[in-house]
Every structure is written in structure tokens, then in C-alpha cells.
Fold this protein.
Amino acid sequence: MASPRPTSLRPTPLREVSTLLGAPGPASDVAVTGVTLDSRAVRPGDLYAALPGARAHGADFGAQVAEAGAAAVLTDPAGAERLTAAGVDLPVVVVEAPRAVLGAVAARVYGTEDLPVRMVGITGTNGKTTTAYLVHSALTALGHSVGLIGTVETRIGDERVGSVRTTPEAPELHALLAVMAERGLDTCVMEVSSHALAQHRVDGVVYDVALFTNLSRDHLDFHADMDDYFAAKASLFTPERARLGLVCTDDDWGGRLAREAGVPVRTIGHTEGVDWRVAVDGADPAAFRLTGPDGVDLHLRSSLPGDFNVTNTAMAAAALVLAGEDPARAGDAVLADPHVPGRMERVVLDGVPAGDQPLAVVDYAHTPDAIAAALHALRPSTPGTLVCVTGAGGDRDRDKRAAMGAAAAEVADLVVVTDDNPRSEDPAVIRAAVLEGVESVRSGGRAVRVVEVGDRREAVREAVSAVAAEGSSATVAVVGKGHERGQDVAGVVHPFDDRDELREALALALGVVAP
Ligand SMILES: CC(=O)N[C@H]1[C@@H](OP(=O)(O)OP(=O)(O)OC[C@H]2O[C@@H](n3ccc(=O)[nH]c3=O)[C@H](O)[C@@H]2O)O[C@H](CO)[C@@H](O)[C@@H]1O[C@H](C)C(=O)N[C@@H](C)C(=O)N[C@H](CCC(=O)O)C(=O)O
Ligand SMILES: Nc1ncnc2c1ncn2[C@@H]1O[C@H](COP(=O)(O)OP(=O)(O)OP(=O)(O)O)[C@@H](O)[C@H]1O
Ligand SMILES: N[C@H](CCC[C@H](N)C(=O)O)C(=O)O
Ligand SMILES: [Mg+2]
């Protein structure tokens, strides 16, 4: 579905754009009414940003955008040459690095330079989506009109649009923020990925509160190394992008960020000396105490399973207070279950007593750290067999694959290695890398069983049937795809939903439907 755009916009003279950029003004006095960087999304009157990329140069789509009614093009010198060579007759603004100015241009065209919407931005390797839902649901409970932008979806009040990426490109983002302002929303909570920070997607947005959850191995296909990955995340904590930071210092990267941030930072975590201290209270692992500045002392309980969700809930509560909410009311508001799709989501087969079915969970863990966290969260409630169905994505960080297999094998009793969006790669090669990690744990002496089942549907069925006889003392955790609704194989996305597959597998194994 097309991303929403604001309805009432003042057309922006192209000369105003070139003046903003200090670029030579075009002879034409055309005005623009929108911005896009995707030729397929051009609407009449748009300024099309033709950017150089890894696979194409946006200027190669000049003829299509002219045909679609684009009013003008913003590009680099190479793009301008291509447009001329292709005989594209549109006014062109040329700058050396168009991606780097796109946020400012989009903010001018969509009128979001002085945004009347409070902004909360969340970055970190794991926990962004969960924490964003926690903040969103709490603010909604407190009576605010809240927008959400993240991996699963964009929400503008009651309107929901499924996401393609975690963080939209700048033109789409500023259009969404303009729509939120137009509809009277007072706050927007959004996930800010490292790709987005490195690619200027959130330029022109200043977060009132920016959160850092944690940093661990991921995306090293895109970032040169962990320092480079950290630097991308840290760039959120600079005056151009944030006013105040809330940094979890439970890992060393958070500690480093708290020392190096270019904006005032409050720290949060389980260790002494932090501004917001999380202390788990006694026997219930979900219950905790959160103490903060100015005598804030809250007794809270995470509605989601796992130690990491204690941290996510604590971060949400502290973020609400830093964003100006009353601490006691904020504490009450984070107690409700925010229903985060595909994050530790339980799948239950109706019509079969709970004690007769394995605990079945779908989770989006797709990094070594997240897999470890998710399985550790499930281990204490699993007296019987803990099965993990896992795979790794194609065309993504290759070196995390073995570590993901090892993380699963360290905690589970049975690991079923399968496919997860092989994309353009050979799925068997990806599975082999995951299996290597499992084998490294087995050769270290841990008696974990492993099977390789490429077809994900068969893998889920095999996992469930292996433990169905144990009833609720067993757990099947299917990780990696969470809310996703497709399996990308060689560029074709086949409909696939782990939650439906798990329900089907339970039905088959428990004899509720004929196989
Ligand atoms: C590494 C990365 O993020 N690349 C993004 C980047 O690609 P690129 O600069 O190489 O562009 P390209 O594909 O060569 O195309 C060049 C230009 O031509 C344009 N084009 C291209 C084809 C066409 O038909 N028409 C057209 O106009 C493109 O919009 C682009 O401006 O700009 C493209 C245009 O917006 C994105 O589609 C592309 O995202 C790719 C597909 C992607 O998979 N990104 C993922 C890794 C990502 O961003 N993930 C993060 C984090 C995920 C997480 O939460 O863990 C996210 O925020 O989602
Ligand atoms: N604070 C946390 N620390 C470690 N692991 C976590 C944390 N929160 C969630 N996880 C694990 O990481 C997985 C992804 O969580 P979530 O979707 O909230 O993170 P994300 O940062 O939005 O991820 P992505 O960048 O892929 O969208 C969860 O399914 C869970 O297994
Ligand atoms: N949104 C992230 C995670 C996808 C998780 C997994 N399902 C995969 O395909 O690797 C990405 O695009 O890297
Ligand atoms: Mg996310």
C-alpha cells in the first residue's frame, strides 16, 4: 500500500529548494508538492531524488518519472549527465551528495521543519520494536494521540500500514510526520535503524528523547566492523538529531555511548551508579523496582516474558518520564500488555487443553544475542525438551550465522536448522554455516540434538511432532521471522507466517485435523 501523504500542502518553489541547498537555481519557476526517491512511487508534482546506489542510479529511471508527472529532479553530477544523455526534459537541481540533503529538502516541502509532534526515537540492535510498542501503548493509555513507525507497521491513530523497512527513507518519513501533525497526533514513537542513521533517513528530525537499548553482532554486511556499527548508532546522540538521550549501560557499548554522546544523557540499567536503576524484586522474575532521579521509585512488572523485557519495560517507563509524563502515571501505563506481533508471541491451539500441548512461541530473534536471550527466557518454564527452529537470512551478515547456530545449541535440547529468507543465496550454504555453529557446541561436549530441514513448514512440523507427546512440559520456539508474512526465495516472496504454521503443526501433531 502507498505510504500516506499530507493532504494540504503549500507548493514549494523549486528555487526555494535550490536556495536552501546553496545550489545553482534552475531556470524554471516550477513548484513541487511532494518528494520521493523511488521512481515507482512518483506522484504528479513530485521532486524526484535520483540517488546513486549499490544496484542502480536513480537517474536511470528519469524517463519513467517524467512520464509519471514528476515536476523536477534532485541529483548528483553523474545523475545530471545521465538525465541529459537520456533526453529527460525536467528541471534539475544538482548537488554533490543528494542523500545527505534529502532530509532537509523533505522537511521543507512537507512543512515539518517546526514539527508540533513530540518525537521519541529508539535505536539499538535488539528491543527497538518491543520498546516502541511499550511506549506507544502506554502513551495511548495516558490519553495521548500517538503515532508509531517501525519494523512491523506504521500507525497513525487508528490507521495501520505494514512496513517495508524499519525506518522509512527521509521523504516518506517527513510525509508521515506531516500526516501525523495534520491529524492532530501529539507524539510519534519510532525505531531508528543503523541503516537509517548511516543513510541520512532521519535527517531533519530532532528527537525529544532518543533511546539506546544495546549493541551486539548484526548487520556487518553493511557496517565495516562493530566500531562502525556503533558510530552509526551513536550519531543519533548528537545535537542535530536529539535533545536528550536515555542509554542502557548494561553492555559496554552503552557505557561507551554514555561517555561519548554529544547530547545530555541519562543512563539506565541493572548496575550501580546509573541514573535509572532496575532491580528485580524477589521470586517473580518479571517484577522489578525502577528508581530514578527526583525520588522516582516505581514497583513494576513486565507483561512480556524474558529478562530482556524487564529492561525494555524499564526503558519505556523512564522514557515516558523524560518525555514529560508524570512518573506514577507512566508506571501504571507501562503495565499493560502491548501485544507486540511476533515477539515472544504464544501460539495456542484452540480446543486442546493447555496441558496437552507444547508451549509454542514465535519470536523475531535473528541475532546470536537475541536467540540466547529468547531461549534463556523460555528455559526455566520448560522442564521437558526445549526445541529451537532457526535459520539465517540470505544477503545479510554472513558471519553471524554460525554464532546464531551456536547460541541456539548452547540452550536448546534440539535445534532444527531451516531456511529464513534465503533471498538470492543458496539456502543449503546458509544452513551449513548455521549447522557449523551447532556442531561447535556439540564438539565442545554439550549433548544437543540437531536436524536439518530446509523447508520451513516441514521444519516446524518436525519440531512439534518431536515433542508433542510431552505436552506442556516441552517448548517449541520458532525464531527469526516473527511478524513476517513471507519467505523470500530468489526474489519471490512466498506467503508464510510462522504463527499459522505453528498452529497447523500443533493441529497435525495432536490429531485435531487429519494429516
Ligand atoms: C543497504 C540498504 O539499506 N540499501 C537501501 C538503499 O539502497 P541503494 O542506495 O543501494 O539503492 P539502489 O537499490 O541501488 O537504487 C538506487 C536508487 O534508485 C532508486 N530506484 C531503484 C529501482 C527502481 O525501480 N526505481 C528507483 O527509483 C532507489 O530508490 C534508489 O534511490 O536505498 C534503497 C532505496 O530506499 C533501499 O531499498 C535499500 O534497502 C535495501 C533494499 C534493504 O534491504 N535495506 C535493509 C537492509 C534495511 O534498510 N534494513 C534496516 C534495518 C533492519 C533491522 O531492523 O534490522 C531498516 O531500517 O529496515
Ligand atoms: N532488550 C533486549 N535485549 C536483548 N534481546 C532482546 C531485547 N528485546 C528483545 N530482544 C530479542 O530480540 C528480538 C527482536 O526484538 P525487537 O523486534 O524488539 O528488536 P528490534 O531492535 O526492533 O529488531 P529489528 O532491528 O530486527 O527490528 C526479540 O524477538 C527478542 O528475542
Ligand atoms: N529486518 C531485518 C531482520 C530480518 C530477520 C530475518 N527474518 C532475515 O530475513 O534475516 C533485516 O532485514 O535484516
Ligand atoms: Mg524492529
